[in-house]
Design goal:
Number of helices: 22
Largest sheet: none
Radius of gyration: 23 Å
Low-confidence stretches: 1-32, 459-473
Order of helices and strands: HHHHHHHHHHHHHHHHHHHHHH
Strand content: under 5%
Shape: globular
Length: 473
């Protein structure tokens, strides 16, 4: 009961202006008051219903799509990923695991989202309204995230704090990717929800929260493969921050030690929870890699535009995957990794320049397509996606602003790790419009939360009635 009281105390403080759960919402015996618990559920329900309304409103002309079965919904997307997930989920639900015909899917994608779809099939049947079920889960997860964001922001932004978490859904990227039938079938909403929860837990700077954060980081990687790469880069950044923290300690500045240690613990816990899937691949006769897309990237990079189009990979060519072939045409058609790296190391400026030229087209692309930009952005697109670019720059500025706070390593490790990982993706992978959705959403998410971190030069931002509790630092 004491542990439950502490957990609810941490989660509910402060809701709707409650300053401390120890002052309002608890009894003399230390039990959590029903009023505070009901208040917590009310806030969650408000956000949950708001997300359902937004989701329904954006599909008002085709509401029947929410009632489609898994296979129908996957076919409606006209993309390969959802159809592959649906095929694997049908096999897992009916046969217990992927069959010989679908085993290749688990070489290219981790099993998390497939297992969720399979579970829903087992519980509700093959004709269950899969988009609707996924929407309920997604809206529930993000309503909880928004409730926690409000808890953090309320002391700095006062009565406006409840609106700020909704800002993310002003942008089409979030609406399409997190609560639309199309985005729900891709499964990246599950990774994003787990990742956001991991960050919210990590910045609490306690050991229990760090362990839970590590688990959520791992869940994010199990849902979509790119998050495993994000975590690997974040781990390298966290090691670097631990070294910097040790050097700061020798110079008499010891405020980074706890947060840098907890960041490292969280990411090591994530790697530990990811170990079973690596062992699964090892038992299948492979190695410890998370997925096996590396050889495909090298082969595509050394292919001509025509060769890619003939294989149905025209979107890869448009996304700049075959930069090696463009730079050194005499090597087109080869598959050697040594040739690939020799071309990159011999022409790094030309390579990066060619990829960077594509960035504006994909960053500002309308969300009418998730792969190749299929239309020119209008004024609204430019303004909204420009605002997200401002949030990205604002996030980097905020990281500099909070660099001397106790919790800085948590934010630096996650944010700089993500930026570094996306730089690698920009350099070596092809571009798709959806590849930039997560960093856009994370920029807004982190920027708003970082604004609430008090520093010596600005103890709080003054929108609320009191200084921020030092939840983040």
């Amino acid at each position: 009961m004491i542990a439950f009281h502490k957990l609810t105390n941490l989660m509910l403080n402060p809701l709707f202006g409650l300053k401390k759960m120890s002052e309002v919402g608890t009894t003399e015996t230390g039990q959590v008051g029903l009023g505070a618990i009901n208040c917590c559920w009310f806030v969650w329900a408000c956000y949950f219903l708001a997300l359902l309304v937004i989701a329904v409103f954006q599909t008002i002309t085709s509401l029947d799509v929410w009632g489609h079965s898994l296979l129908e919904a996957a076919r409606e997307t006209h993309y390969g990923d959802p159809n592959s997930f649906a095929s694997a989920a049908m096999d897992v639900s009916s046969q217990g695991w992927v069959t010989q015909n679908t085993s290749w899917i688990f070489n290219l994608w981790p099993p998390g989202f497939v297992l969720l779809e399979a579970l829903l099939l087992t519980l509700f049947g093959s004709n269950a309204p899969m988009p609707l079920l996924l929407l309920v889960i997604s809206a529930g997860l993000f309503a909880a995230i928004m409730m926690e964001m409000r808890r953090i922001l309320v002391s700095s932004f006062g009565q406006w704090a409840w609106l700020i978490p909704l800002l993310i859904f002003c942008f089409a990227e979030a609406r399409v990717f997190l609560i639309s039938p199309l985005g729900l079938m891709f499964g990246e909403w599950l990774s994003i929800a787990c990742f956001f929860w991991a960050v919210l837990l990590l910045v609490r700077t306690t050991l229990k929260a760090a362990i839970l954060a590590g688990m959520f980081f791992a869940f994010a990687a199990y849902a979509r493969s790119q998050f495993e790469f994000f975590l690997n880069v974040m781990l390298f950044v966290s090691i670097a921050l631990a070294i910097v923290s040790s050097l700061r300690k020798k110079q008499g500045v010891d405020n980074w030690s706890q947060a840098s240690r907890l960041l490292l613990i969280a990411l090591l816990v994530a790697q530990l929870f990811m170990l079973p899937w690596r062992i699964y691949h090892l038992n299948q006769g492979h190695d410890l890699r998370w997925v096996y897309t590396g050889p495909l990237i090298i082969e595509a990079s050394l292919s001509t535009d025509i060769a890619l189009q003939e294989k149905g990979g025209g979107f890869l060519a448009q996304g700049g995957i075959n930069m090696a072939c463009h730079i050194a045409p005499e090597h087109c058609g080869e598959t050697s990794s040594s040739v690939y790296w020799r071309i990159f190391l011999g022409h790094p400026y030309e390579w990066i320049k060619g990829k960077v030229k594509l960035l504006p087209r994909y960053w500002f692309a309308p969300t009418t397509s998730l792969t190749v930009p299929n239309a020119q952005p209008d004024l609204v697109d430019v303004l909204l996606k420009g605002a997200l670019l401002v949030c990205f720059v604002g996030m980097l500025w905020s990281l500099w602003r909070v660099r001397d706070t106790n919790g800085a390593p948590a934010w630096l490790g996650v944010s700089l790790g993500l930026v570094a990982a996306h730089c690698v993706i920009i350099a070596f992978s092809h571009f798709e419009v959806r590849y930039f959705f997560f960093i856009k959403m994370y920029s807004l998410f982190s920027f708003t939360l970082l604004l609430s971190v008090p520093t010596e030069s600005r103890p709080y931002w003054g929108f609320g009635s009191s200084k921020l509790n030092e939840h983040l630092s």
